[in-house]
Description:
Layout: H1 3-41, H2 47-80, H3 90-108, H4 110-113, H5 119-146, H6 148-151, H7 155-192, H8 199-223, H9 230-233, H10 241-250, H11 252-282, H12 290-311, H13 316-336, H14 341-352, H15 356-375, H16 380-408, H17 422-450, H18 455-471, E1 487-491, E2 496-500, E3 513-518, E4 522-524, E5 529-534, E6 540-545, E7 550-557, E8 567-569, E9 576-577, E10 582-586, H19 588-593, E11 597-604, E12 610-615, E13 619-621, E14 626-632
Antiparallel strand pairs: 1-14, 2-3, 2-13, 3-11, 4-10, 5-6, 5-9, 6-7, 7-11, 8-10, 12-14
Helix pairs in contact: 1-3, 1-5, 1-7, 1-8, 1-11, 1-16, 2-5, 2-16, 3-5, 3-8, 7-8, 7-12, 10-16, 11-15, 11-16, 11-17, 12-14, 13-14, 13-17, 15-18, 16-17
Amino acid sequence: MDKRSSRSFISKFSFAMGNLGHAAFYGALSNYFIVFVTAGLFSELDPKIAAKLIGLITSLIVLIRIVEIFIDPLLGNIVDNTKTKWGKFKPWIIIGNVVSAVIMIILFTGIFNLANVNWIAFAILFVILFVVLDVFYSFSDVSYWGMVPALSDGSKERGLYTALGSFTGSVGWNGLTIIVVPIVTYFTYLATGKHTQGAPGWLAFAVIISLLAVLCAFIVAWGTEEKDDLIRTAAKPKTTIKDVFIGLAQNDQILWASLAYFMYSLANVITNGVLYYFFKFVLGRPESFQVAGWIAIGIGLLTSPLYPLLNRFIPRKYLFSFGQCCMIVSYLIFIFGRQSMGLLIIGLVLYNITFAQLVTVLTLTDAIEYGQLKTGERNEAVVLAVRPMIDKLCGAFANGIVGYIAIAAGMTGSATAADMTTKNIRTFEGFAFYVPLVLAVLALVIFLTKVKLTEEKHEEIVEELKDKLALGDEKLDLKVTEEKTRTTNVLAPISGQIEALPSKAAPDFNALGFVILPTTQKVYAPFSGTIRFTFSTKHVLGIVAHNGLEAIIHVGIDTVKLRGKGFVTHYNDGQTVKAGDLLLEFDLELIKQAGLNPNVIVFFTQPKAIAQFELTTDHEVSHGELVATVTLEQR
């Protein structure tokens, strides 16, 4: 392994390790802090006061999490404006993890048993500490995922970083299910001599997970290196919550896909939040809870790489439906078949077979072009904001619901499975399984009846949008700097045989421009300007010269069907590029093997604004060679 490859491996490994601790910390805070609060934090208080405090804490967590959604853009701006010799992300990853880890440990001490001394002071101090914790955790979260573009050059590498982070995050999140009961029980036994899950054990659990999060944060800081290049200096507008909701309102496919995902996600987080209660109070087998974690990790390792293989042959709507049907059957097993451990294991397997998240991400991505065709606006930032926003909303609601379930079903304090009455069990089942079952069914119905953006429909939209651009019906809508010169020299973006449009080499492009039959696989900027947009399938990009000349580069015909496979971009939307800069690479052989036309088309939008177009045609050109001049009308 050479030095460059070794550095790349260390960077990817370090980044992936970061989310191992990051996700484990969030899981401990989101799922198990509520368990600790309901199980033993107020065991020495009067039951009425304990119930009030549990209700207060769960309500405050819900409120704080909802408010957090609105402050995330502000935190992102603070991170963006940070300048240190270590970069702008690493300091916040370290500071965010250290501060939030210390505060989480304090919370798991019951703020040093303050509730037993003065429960009003405890409530006030709890609000302050939890707000500070959530803010600093958000700093580390925004910085960690915002770091991806700073570590990688192209989409393929960014996808790899994201996939590695998601994989280790799944291990960190689901791994808690495996270790929580053994750790809590063991350290409770060391402190009290009792084989139960007591306050000393929960504190030890919080300390271990906090130390893991801090260690992983330092691994990220040590092993990664932020890159200083044009991509990082490209200015990108910030998205506010107002922008998100405006984008949602104008794009019905984002709206329906998001609603379906919200139903699925809410069902999922509620059930995950009460699985521990299910094993401890309903089944009376808390020691078996780790089985759920092993199954979740195993199924996650299987389904994540399996999805892209299945999607080659099975439309994503059917994959979404299959995953939801598995989830629905799992709830029926939890309700009616829990007496059998074998059936319960089958239920846990089915529960974790879900493609909802992956399908939703792809559907929302395709909705970018749908929205552009419908409204003339591209809302990439909305797509980036929607799913995390839904996850946070669901997490907030789930925290409140889980706390309510624990109180309503009598699963608080020193209660055991033997204390559960039929009414307690029915109350638990109603909120833990019946409500999520209805949500899972609604998610399936909404997706099947309202989400029309299939793979085939997206292909049609891309082609229609391309035609509108070619005819000048769709402006790129970018503010450009005024230049005195109205003439732009256009260079060949790729080597090959050049022909004027319209041409038999590109029969569907009746536009002003040219087509090149490529002999190479790299596309370069035909002139200096700003990248306005890229289709999610990466085969089409828009570029605007500083004098206002707008052009589209379209790689291949019907290559939208490849859905980005074989394409690698080397820029960010909004980035300023110079003539001759490498923009993207594509797999020429892959396009030919798919039976598609690989010709590269360059055409100019708003042809009525062009006063003169001169093209040198019908000969072999090399990329970077002057092939045309375009003069705009006098303004």
